[in-house]
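This follows on from our talk about sequence and fold. Please put the record directly below this note.
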Amino acid sequence: MAPPAEVFISYARTDKDRVLALAAKLRGAGVSLWIDQGGIDGAAQWGEQIVDALEGAKVLLLMVTDSAVRSHNVAKEVVLVSERKGHILPVHLEPTQIPSSLKYPLAGIQHIDYDPNDQDESLKSILRSLERIGVAIAPAVKAVAPETEPRPASVASAGSVTERGALAVLPFDNISPDKETDYFSDGLTEELIARLSLVSEIDLISRWASMQLKDRKQDTRAIGAELGARYIVGGSVRRFQESVRVTVQLVDVVSNRQIWGNTYKGKLDDIFDIQEQVAQQIVEALKLKLTFSEQVSLTKRNTVNAQAYDLYLRGQDYQYRLTKRSTEYSIQLFEKAIELDPRYAAAYAACSSAYGQMYQWFARDEKYRNKAQELSFKALMYDGNLAEAYTAMGLSYFIWGKLPEASASSRKAIELDPDDFIAQWTLGRIHFSQGEHEPAYALFKRVIALKPAFYSGYMDLAQTCDQLGREDEAQVARGELRQRLPVYLLQNPDDARARIIHAAMLAEANHKAEALSEGAIALELSPNDPMMLYNCACLYSRLGELQRALDTLRQAISGGYNSFGWMDHDPDLAPLREHPEFKALASLRQSTTAGALSEVRPAKI
């Protein structure tokens, strides 16, 4: 008995001709599918055969047209699959307004536009999405003619077989006249790493490990030894206005010999073609065999709008500077990118995270966390397998106090991208909030390994080590923080968050006057912020200013601070725990609304 088809095509009878044409292309690409060739609306009844086919399929491929969304039988199929939590992939054959009856079952899932003027690219998008869902793509094996054309000399010189070994992509040098375009060269580096990470035969060095070598001038053998890489990709980017030139080389560390190299010139609009060519030619130079899925993945484009892409890269550059001003600016850049490409999932995800940061650290305005949640859902709607979208959703759930959902979203992000340090940081803070210090410790260690410049990780690790009795490790983490913060504050003097952390470091070193001064500056930079008030209360507690700490803590709670799980485990407040006024603060907890009590915000900035 033949196994059931993996894909069920749902469509309206009036669309039969174009749907059958697309179905033939899908079959030709190796998709196992079931389709009622009489047309769903023309069937005598919505019967057992159709239900059996739906039950056996991995995904319902919904051909969206005006006729289809008005079809009662199409609606039945969608509802049946939605109720059993099956996969649905809507493919829009024409611009269509989704009716209210279908909005719920189609909410939060990826939609694909099928462009009749670019059918090959549209077909690739469908195949990519089907494979992500778990559909096996098994194209017919074609006979391969003997190679009559010689390979390019740069590739052939590598020998008939390329030895296996790890590959590192180093940050591209920015040789542009405008050094402010570092964000662009860094973005190209990360995009290339992301593409190559999809190839199973490549043992790729973590992008964060590679990015730590930015501006390091060493020979390839020294870098290879440091990273444990056999092959190194390096290059340069020169951008002047709308003109771009990218030079790339692939080097064998052992022989110190260039295997392949090329220079690409074009306009900003050509950048996607350049990225695709570089990734494919590196794969060819290493003589790797790609699965069909990997071949398709290498051509994936998150956007086809070069201006939107440039704005997105600019926004990312500002986003994790973690100042209020930089976060606000990143939101403006991401929103402009979305305006230029309303289906740009990565821009929605980044904008969601930026709004989450605004709510988390700078302003307790409900519109910020509402926007964070809304945009994370939109990111997943346009790309259901985007790690950054799950990262954004994890942060969104966290600031709403929905910890199980926040944890699940963050874990999904890490599953899709093990190098996503923000998802791991969020998950670590969830564990700490619940008193689960061992898993929090492991996650914060991973965050620092992935992103050594991310100073918040050291603070969280130090506090976690305090709870675990690992005093030596806590001191090492704080030592790293003490070294990094003064230089950072010279560059970012208006960063209130970094100020209060620096104040805590000074307090620990018994520099009381300087610590109080830094705390006062932090409060001045971020007045009436309940998070800042809470952190100042912690500072005063550490410095022995107990009454001042209690008064400030009361202000923080009255102003909206309600992360009581964190407060109960925060070692900075240990001197207050037996104080009658601290115990009396429990009454303030009881007066907090039930909705606010259920919210667990990040409790330390």
About this structure: The chain has a mean pLDDT of 81. The longest strand covers residues 257-267. The chain is about 55% helix and 10% strand. The CA atoms of residues 170 and 234 lie 5 Å apart.
